[in-house]
Amino acid sequence: MSFLACLLRVTALAPRVRHLSLLVFALSAPALHAATPATVFDDIKARATPDELYRLLFALPKGGDLHHHGGGAVPMEFVVDYYTNPARNRGQKYYIRTSVVPTADAGAAALPDVLYHVVREGAWKTFSPSIRAQWKPVTDLTSAEKAAWISSLKLDQPGEARDEFFEKTWWRLGPIFGDIELAPELLVENMKTFGREGVRYLEMQTIPAGYTDRDGRPIPADEVYRIFRERLAQPDALATGVTVRFQIVIIRFLPRAEEAIRGAFAFIDAHRDLFVGVNMAGREDNGKGQAARFTSVFREMQAKYPRIPLAIHAGESDEANANIRDTLLLGADRIGHGVNILKDPATYLLLRNNRYLVEINLVSNRLLEYVTDPAQHPFPVLLRTGVPVCLNTDDRGMWDSNFTDEYFTAVKNYNLSWAETISLARASLVHSFLDEATKARLLADYDKAVAAYEARFLTPEWRTAAAAVTPVVSNYGKKAFNLTAPVNLGDLR
Ligand SMILES: [Zn+2]
After folding, report:
1. Is the pLDDT of residue 178 over 80?
2. C-alpha of residue 353 to centroid of ligand 1, in Å
3. Residue 1: which pLDDT band, with cuts at 50, 70 and 90?
4. 219 in a domain, yes or no?
5. Is 290 found in the same domain as 220?
6. CA-CA distance, 342 to 349, in Å (whole number)?
7. 418 and 270 in one domain?
8. How far apart are CA 318 and CA 59, in angstroms?
9. 359 — phi, psi (to 5°)?
10. What's the pLDDT at 236?
11. Ligand 1 centroid vs 148 CA: distance in angstroms?
């Protein structure tokens, strides 16, 4: 029966009931006619199951992942597959450390005491016999050892947080992300997974001077540029729909960081079509890497080269400090993390209604325990008080998560409106370091994708539309959000 027929029948009843029904009609009619993307999104937040919300957010068009570390961003199952599958690694052999026994041998001091540290066969052969005995070929691991290895590459066990991450996990990644044959392949595989989630831009942090050939010989950075450029122009890379640019990342606490900054500016200036900005990373509780150390070298670079944008990690710490302010003084355009920003009120006020963007990393901040209670995260305050923000994955391979998890966390914890949700991706593209023409193209493409999404998913029939989406679910998402969909991010390779 149509709504009108029903109403006519009701109005034939007693006058009191009729008045009541007319009142109900008067109240409900505007709502019936006012189903906008914003109201449907509110309805979804109120009524969707976790699986339904996840499907809808997986299908959501996303913008750029601006805070994205090359090695840490790849699903760790892909990493292990590259090490153990000769078809993937082109016949290279690797050894992995399966015991850590103190030895007085020369050379032992140069190695970190880290289980599941992987090296090339050539490097392993240079070790003394007693050190060599602590390693075995990666292809000889038992299935239990292999599972422990994969787990060791992720923060997936109770008690694992920033010490594990900064001091161990990075060692375990081993040489493949600096291998000029394999790193571009891993990037394209990762672009495919990001593309499936609707991500359209990656601004990856890397070190062009850090690549080697399979024998460990350094590759000139110009050659690294040429190889990545050619790989990204291949049909399978283009088919991902994901545009890639690189930032050069400086490890801030190293003794020669100033020299690395000078090299980064010179290199970017000569390769601006692919390399677009400078970053600085490294744990901020290491006092040797404080932003103020670099003021003079950035001034020197700014006197020498036409503008090169800066996105710098700052405020990824528990305590209040002046690191974000000092980082803005270096000339930073974007702040990576900014977790402690609200503890520095003057700098927070400076960011409001200004042009600096804060790159938010919700899953990272939780797993590294910079923010243990979502209510303490500055993200919603920044979002709602005029500080540009976007969502990012940081090292999602180590979190065992994906981009959808960032959106799910944000929508669930902070009750994002539809306008707020789409503002995040827009901000990521607006504040990207892309050239203006490419930026305009990606923004137009994003707006078109949002319109198509609204037409397909943000209607009163959203539940039916959601059922047709098959998301790629991460282990993090499955655990954190109680999802029942199969876990298959690591199986995509
Ligand atoms: Zn980072």
Report:
1. yes
2. 24
3. very low
4. yes
5. yes
6. 9
7. yes
8. 34
9. -85, 110
10. 98
11. 25
Per DSSP, the three-state class of 245 is strand
Could you report the per-residue pLDDT of 328-368, keeping only the tens digit for each?
A: 999 999 999 999 999 999 999 999 999 999 999 999 999 99
pTM (global) more than 0.85: yes
Q: How far is the CA of 394 from the centre of ligand 1 (A)?
A: 5
Per-residue pLDDT tens digits for 405-462? 999 999 999 999 999 999 999 999 999 999 999 999 999 999 999 999 999 999 999 9
State the pLDDT at residue 33: 63
* Same domain (yes/no): 234, 100: no
Report the separation in Å between the CA atom of 144 and the middle of ligand 1, taken as the mean of its atom positions.
31
φ/ψ of 309, rounded to 5, equals -70, 155
Say whether both 235 and 154 belong to one domain: no
If one counts the domains in the chain, the total is 2
Would you name the residues annotated as active-site residues? 316
What are the pLDDT digits (tens) for 10-46? 444 444 444 545 444 445 544 456 899 999 999 999 9
Task: Give a yes or no: residue 134 inside a domain.
Answer: yes
Beta bridge partners, 314, equal 337
Strand 275-281 versus strand 243-251 pairing type: parallel
**229 CA → ligand 1 middle, Å:** 24
Same domain membership, residue 211 and residue 161: no
CA–CA distance, 152 with 118 (Å, rounded to integer): 12
Compute the distance from residue 48 Cα to the ligand 1 centre, in Å. Answer: 32
> What is the DSSP track for 309-346?
-BEEEE--SSS--SHHHHHHHTT-SEEEE-TTGGGSHH
Flag whether 438 is in a domain: yes
> How would residue 176 be classed by pLDDT, with cut points 50, 70 and 90?
very high
Distance 101 CA to ligand 1 centre (A): 32
115 and 205 housed in the same domain: no
Q: What is the residue range of 159's domain?
A: 93-167
Same domain, 290 and 390: yes
> CATH number of the domain that 340 lies in?
3.20.20.140
Q: Are residues 193 and 338 in the same domain?
A: yes
Q: Above 80 in pLDDT, residue 106? A: no
In a domain, 199, yes or no: yes
Neighbours of ion ligand 1 (CB under 5 A): 394
